[in-house]
Amino acid sequence: MNGIYKQVYAKIKKFKTIYIARHIGPDPDAFSSQIALRDSIRLTFPNKEVYALGASVAKFKYIGKLDKVENIDTTNSLVITTDVPDLQRVDGIDILKCPNVIKIDHHPFVDDFGGIDLIDDECCSAAEVVLNLIKETKLKMDESIATTLVIGIISDSNRFLFSPVDYKTLILVANILKEYDLDLQTIYNSIYQKPLSELRLMGYIASNLKVTKNKFAYIHLEKDVISSLGADFSSASNMINDFNNINEILVWTFISYDEKSEMYKLNIRSRGPIINEIASMYNGGGHKYSSGARVKNKKDVDELLIKLENECIKFEKQV
Fold first, then answer.
1. Fewer CB under 10 Å: which end of the chain, C or N?
2. Strand order in the sheet with 17-22
3. Is the dihedral angle over the CA atoms 30, 36, 42, 45 positive or is it negative?
4. pLDDT in tens, 78-123
5. What is the largest CA-CA distance in the chain?
6. How far is the CA of 93 from the CAs of 55, 70, 163, in angstroms?
7. 116-119 and 210-211 as β-strands: parallel, antiparallel, unpaired?
8. pLDDT (tens digit, 9 = 90+) per residue, 113-161?
């Protein structure tokens, strides 16, 4: 990886204006990797113009603020994407119109963005990839950047519970906790402190989750129901990880409808069956056990659910 780190650093050093984007419908890792990389480049090169693009989410304001850019000119600029493997999910910029691109990601390769790929799918998060980049180059880090990266790593690994967390991840985090004297409990509180409305939403999901005899679970999250509980879609989406380690469930998915894009969004998780190959058939993809899909019509949703349940059946026969 050393050669890729050097290429990425050389590109960053070369351009005066840099735009950093991540995926639509961001999670804390997407925000953290984007914000931390922006702030690291600004700290290292104070004279550069570095902007974090995309739609903001009020729930993640504790991570940092995005930039409002009225006129994006990519002709002589560098665009860096974090935590997004596919072209259609880049938020805030059209990658196909960008001549200078770097992709920083921890998902399996999906689309060629036409530039340098810094992809490490042995990392648990995009934030971990960014942390390695900083550690292996002359990019700088301070307490705020370190905190932001730890937030991304903890959230995407669900407190180090999910694969591919290993000793390397734990050593990385331990070292920056020590170096910057970060309080882990304070970081956990910023990620996991939640309002009562989210607890009520969790209760609603648990009570209405449909579970088949083949250990496949799903729920359609209706906008009016979520609103009636005083919660929002981003809260609901992030709750999917809370349904891991349930004996009666192997694969589970949350389904919602995005009125703006006129598409159904499916967040999918698994405790064994491989799901990213199925998700990739439906405008999505991701990790083997953590994926998503976006489809236009209800027929495709129903078809995808059948395929996911069939994977549960196949997996149970193999065990």
1. C
2. 49-52, 17-22, 78-82, 101-105, 116-119
3. negative
4. 999 999 998 988 999 999 999 999 999 999 888 999 999 999 999 9
5. 60
6. 11, 12, 31
7. unpaired
8. 999 999 999 999 999 999 999 999 999 999 999 999 999 999 999 899 8
